[in-house]
Amino acid sequence: MEPVEGESKRDCWTVAFGNAYNQEERVVCAGYDNGDIKLFDLKTMSLRWETNIKNGVCSLEFDRKDINMNKLVATSLEGKFHVFDMRTQHPTKGFACVSEKAHKSTVWQVRHLPQNRDIFVTSGGAGSLHLWKYEYPAQRSKKDSEGADMGVAGSVSLLQNVTLSTQPISSLDWSPDKKGLCVCTAFDQTLRVLIVTKLNKV
């Protein structure tokens, strides 16, 4: 999958699968160095949606790969992340989005908690981890002036944060079995195993 002839070729920094709720449906989302986010439908092999967050896209993740598209989080070079509500696509405005300044440096990665898709962690270039919770709005969609459905973005709140290193935390993964157990790596050549407690109370 590459740009058509004549289009400029940008560096693709991150990809994520999603919408795999049956044997046929699949999408792949790609983030680029110029801030482009492109959603490709693998069933029809076509571009389904695109947007630009004005800064290099470091990490993308759907809250679940194997359900109807629900939420997509994109992190960027400038310290922001963007949460897109993927349930309702407006013909011209696309998906509703909420943005948050998460770190004072690059947000290297986002990872959703396997046992609760509304909780996710972001890792920063200054060696910190931030734990977030997404709150849905009272109504996830509404009609615009022309009667078309458009999504309504929710809100995000910071649950906890910790600084583990003076170097960027480049990678993190949650345990699918033990709630709150995770592992991360940083540029200080250290692998850390962490446990996040009280997740059943948020």
From TrEMBL:
The keyword ATP-binding does not apply. Pfam families: WD40. Keywords: Repeat, WD repeat. It comes from the Eukaryota. PANTHER family: MRNA EXPORT FACTOR AND BUB3. This is WD repeat domain 92.
